[in-house]
Amino acid sequence: xxxxxTPAALPGRVRITQGFTFEAAHFLxxxxxxxxxxxxxxxxxxxxxxLEGPVDPVTGFVVDFFDVENAFGPLLKQLDHYCLNDIxxxxxxxxxxxxxxxxxRMKPLLPTLASVRVYETPMSYAxxxxx
Length: 131
Prior knowledge:
This protein is an alpha+beta fold. It has a single domain, classed as 6-pyruvoyl tetrahydropterin synthase/QueD (Tetrahydropterin Synthase, Chain A, 2-Layer Sandwich), CATH 3.30.479.10. Helix content is 21%, strand content 32%. It has a 5-stranded mixed sheet. Strand 4 (113-121) and strand 5 form a beta hairpin. The relative contact order is 0.20.
């Protein structure tokens, strides 16, 4: 087996994104009683983790997608098919708060994490990044 040469250095930075899905229920306790999201309901959530950095000249990766999957897997299991309100830190689980909650847990594991995007619907998302 032979390997092909990878360019010694690619100029600039590359952003990669890996998506995940989970099903969960929630309600928003801090909205008015008449707001439809005050009642328990569910979503088919999608989470996009974006990582940014230089391409490694040996592997050709910014980060191996397999490593991203392994890092996020335990958190995904904590979210999938649960009531998000029952999870510490997600008592008011808006998309914005979920994105920030995921960020604080993933950034130490994935130092090149650039943003976390949480979709509640195919057309509605919140995106968290530092700065």
